[in-house]
Design goal:
alpha/beta; 13 helices; about 40% helix
Length: about 300
């Protein structure tokens, strides 16, 4: 049994000479060290008008070889689309998942990383452990007996089966200024508002004004025990309060704040952020595909719309 090898130009010259001398194919294969079927296949595929020319046979074989190779997935159009998504701050996994969801040519996150490197990588925020002081301690001291604790929250809220179960929290910037962060548990759709006056009535008014303009019913609200949420009982929907020192009980909004820290740092002066600046940051979060949503965006799931993000 001979080892496999490809037919070369020299082999084709020998085949042509043997054919002109009327040698049978079996003898040609023995002389050149090929299987008989290989010589039959070579002659059948590459002959032209009942004649076999080695130069023409080599050209035909090269064309056939190129056609059978797997085509490169990374076309120029696809690369431009990936770079657009990279400018949005998406990770390679999010880009790959979104392309699959859009039924674009399949490309893995490893391929994206190898092709573009750190251009497509979002910077990760290194979060330090929170110290149990300040706001957390204040939450424990300021608890009220009329607050509805999170353990009374319906199970449907835990299951994330419907739109309209929200979580809210305050996000600090410089000089103890705060943003109000509202996140829907099912879709992760997020709204941001500046807290100009840090009173519980103002925060409740801001919450109602923000959610009222979305055209969606609000079922529940979950927040911590901060003093800015003391007026929760005045809201027209059921409000639940987490236990002190347990931010994981409102993990959706906590994770959202972690994403927002890419754009709003602890030392960011919130007074310098305009309404347009906040809207741009909102869009970056709401138009980012999420793995938990099948690489759809929070906006698409919340409003049940399909959006062409690369345009």
């Amino acid at each position: 049994m001979h080892n496999y090898r490809r037919v070369t130009y020299e082999d084709r010259c020998h085949i042509s000479a043997f054919l002109q001398a009327n040698f049978p194919v079996r003898e040609i294969s023995i002389a050149l060290g090929f299987h008989t079927s290989t010589i039959y296949r070579e002659i059948r595929r590459n002959k032209y008008r009942s004649s076999y020319d080695p130069e023409r046979a080599t050209v035909l074989a090269a064309k056939r070889f190129r056609r059978c190779r797997r085509r490169k997935v990374m076309t120029r159009e696809l690369a431009e689309k990936i770079l657009v998504y990279a400018e949005f701050g998406w990770s390679p996994e999010q880009i790959a998942g979104r392309l699959k969801q859009e039924k674009s040519p399949a490309v893995s996150r490893q391929t994206i990383y190898r092709s573009f490197g750190e251009k497509t990588l979002r910077q990760r925020i290194i979060r330090k452990n929170r110290r149990r002081s300040g706001g957390r301690a204040t939450q424990r001291k300021s608890r009220r007996t009329n607050r509805v604790i999170i353990h009374e929250r319906p199970s449907i809220v835990e299951q994330r089966r419907r739109i309209g179960d929200w979580e809210r929290d305050g996000m600090y910037g410089a000089n103890r200024k705060q943003l109000l962060v509202l996140t829907d548990r099912k879709t992760r759709y997020t709204k941001l508002r500046k807290i100009e006056i840090r009173t519980s009535k103002e925060v409740s008014r801001l919450t109602l004004d923000t959610l009222g303009g979305l055209g969606k019913r609000v079922f529940t609200m979950t927040n911590d025990n901060g003093t800015e949420f003391n007026d929760s009982a005045s809201l027209p929907f059921r409000t639940y309060h987490c236990e002190p020192y347990k931010p994981q009980q409102r993990g959706t909004v906590e994770n959202t704040i972690g994403l927002l820290r890419e754009y709003i740092k602890r030392n960011t002066d919130l007074d310098k952020l305009t309404a347009n600046d906040l809207q741009i940051i909102e869009n970056k979060i709401n138009f980012r595909p999420r793995k938990c949503l099948g690489f759809r965006t929070p906006f698409e799931v919340f409003f049940n719309r399909k959006v062409a993000l690369a345009l």
